[in-house]
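Quick look at the format.
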Amino acid sequence: MKNVKLLGFSAIVGMGLVIYGGTAADAATNDLFRVYNPNSGEHFFTESTSERNWLVAQGWKYEEAAWATPDQGEAVYRLYNQHTGDHFYTKSVTEYDWLKTQGWIQEGEAFYSDTDKTNPVYRSYNKNAKAGAHMYTTSIIEHNSLISIGWTNEEVSFYAANPGNNTEVVDKDELNAEIANGENISKDDYTEATYQNLATALAAGKKVAADQKATQAEVDAATEAIKTALNNLAPGTVDKTALSAKITEAQNYDESIYTSDTAAALATAITEAQKVFNDAAATQAQVDAQLKNLEDTISALRVSVDPTALQNSINKLAAANTASGNNLVAENYATNTWDTYNAAYQDAVTILAAAGTDPTVTQAKIDTANTTLQESFDNLVFVRNLSDLYQYTMTLSVYQSIVTDEMKAEIVYDSQTMAALDYYQMGLKGNYEQLFEADGRTPTADAADIVTQVNIDDMISQIKETLISNLNIEYDKNQANIIGKVLTISTDDELTAVVPQITVPTINWAAE
């Protein structure tokens, strides 16, 4: 902390600024103020408001009134030590004169000690301190605390005034309340002239409120001055443009689509905003408050919809996916059907999140999203098991016009494998055609035809027959092994062991 050097009292006296209380005959009650020098540790006592205020301005700390002094009684004298900067107070003339011989400067009568002697002022002494060596207090607790830490008990030095002798109790409650009212006023809401009148009255009122010697008449006058200034405030220029626009916006909302409570709140907010808008005496603060209230009320609007069915559909999809081993993924389905489903799902999630807050998300929109989601799932074409079988046996590639491009993209094969496949390509082509022609169909390039029309058992049987009839044992070992693996598959269980079947998620939408 920066160490600020406070002016010594010799300097203050030299400037003619020391004006201590003396008899203070002009006040019914004399408060003895206590201020503290944080650098020297001295506590200084004075009845003079101007002396107190000057010291505070120099960095001393004001510690409120120490005690009340009587208008008359035994004089208490003040001395100043120009070497230490310390002050001493005593009602003993002998002590007062002796200290003068020790180099202390006599400063005359400071205040009076009450002759009733009912409120003692205790004095303690710190032999280790150069300044602030003596402490004066009416608090026996504070006095004993100092004694307990090594200060010397010098008993009672003089007496404070008996509170029962006070002739006037000053009530400042109303003044302080009016000061608080004035400080809550916004300068921007009123004309400069009328607000300046209030500022002047407030400044004067604060001085009276802080003055320990202020009379009730002074307090009452300051209170009335603030009241008058408040009553005379004239509204300044008020901008209602934004409020007008927000009222119009709020009136255009279709209250029928919102919940009854939020719609009622909006109607109330509009009414209150219109009152302020039509009030010629409304302040800018009042206008701004209504604007914010309208904005908040609009933000709180909730659309009256029931998204339960859509939420249930999304929940069922999650449950079905989990039950099937999380197989509701793009790689398990034909690309075009998956893209349709995925778009419907994302749209459903977005609409569900906005339901109740976005006025464009109507019940019809929610219901449509739910129907679209269910239909897109039901229309998914499962292709993953067929692709796995193709990857293992490499046989489906022999009729490449039937295999879709997205399935081909999943296959990894080398030139040697393709050489073996080329051998029996033409043989299998005829068998595939027969499978479709048996149902009166013509082979197409749609993978869905393979999934829905080809019986896996029949397909395996046809592959075996074709390979056996066309097998050329002169092909190398690698080619024979590839074909041999196909020949070893004779049942569905063996097929599952070689190519694990994937559980396809299914949903009964009607079930609860």
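Next, a different chain entirely:
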Amino acid sequence: MDDMRHGDVRQAIGAAEDEIFRRFVHPRFGFLLDYAGRNGEADFPDAADMQACRPNAMAWWTPVENGAFFTGLMLAGLSARPEPWRRPQTVDRARGLARALMRLGTVGDRPGFVARSIAEDGKSHPPVGSDDQTSPWLYGFWRYLKSGIPTAEERETITGAMIGLCRALMETGWSMPCDAGPGFGYRGSWAHFNFVHAPRLLFAHRIMAELDTANRDRWLRLYAERLHERDNNKGPSRLELCARGALYGNPGSWIGYPDNPPFWISATAQAGLAEMAALETDPAIAEMFRAGLRANGEAAIHYISQHRWFDNDEPTAYRLDWRGLNAHWREQPDIDTALAVANRQRLDWFRSNPRKIYEEHLMREPLWAGWIALLSGDADVVARATPLIRAAVQHYRWERLYSGAFFVTALYPMGLAEG
């Protein structure tokens, strides 16, 4: 497959983008969906569902559980398209995603909260977000601001929202607030000492030094402190965690968290690390960032070729009816109960939905591994990964997939199509 025609690669990446916007975008509010039927059918939780936390307070297992996560990264991908490949619809789509992302970041009542989705009433939303939702929100807008697409008015609004979010999270100690009653305090934090969270926290500090110009020196000072901070003065510093990488194992190894995490969950850590390496002025620190980027990219290469095992003609259908999970629903007065309900539903959802697992292992992870390899910026890693990525993007039939996770191909450089 290495002798593929380069034009076919561009066509495949463009076709993936078009398929996302055909089936995997919320028809009213414009954020991305987790899954949909082959004709675009999807059942969204309504306002009553979200107010009652059905099926759970995170909206896990529904098509809208990762609205901010997926939308932020898709926005970053479209924003990075250079002029030769920036189609007219690319600009329009990016602006639509930016509007959707802004709505998700402002619909809640608690400062620093980013919603996963919004019901048809324009207000109701799952009350529990996460650090996985908030990191792509910030990264997507950062890349959008660098793209030249937003107007001056958009830039001012977005910059203000990003500054407001980071100032609010600083007040919480970088824990992510929920948007519900007293039993729902926070879920997720960037303050943990591991590879997944260290780059997210540092990335937020570093870009604030660029955006919150009135407080640039303060943000840079805090950034330097956080780089060298250790967990209770023990163990590796955040800088050392960045240099070590995610400790991805070989294909078939036990997936863990935070070490050897899934690629799709950890990708924003690699993305933030790449941004910091580009911004860093200290050569020694920049090289430590690049060491982590290389380590992650090297490990990711081994997963990309698993796309070959995916059968586009596999007949198993995806379970689209999440409402059956309400059999396990109960009142959720606090975050612990909400997680217990969702994890009980998880057993039902995964057991009855083998197509979900099939696409996660043989489509989602290989494609996200490709992005992590490309983000490494290491010439040798990228050179070895590129033929595998070219083969992967031409292998899948996007119209036959139920999971929208293939949107990550929008983050691939169109230059992949060139020899």
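The first helix runs from residue 6 to 23.

See the schema section for token definitions.
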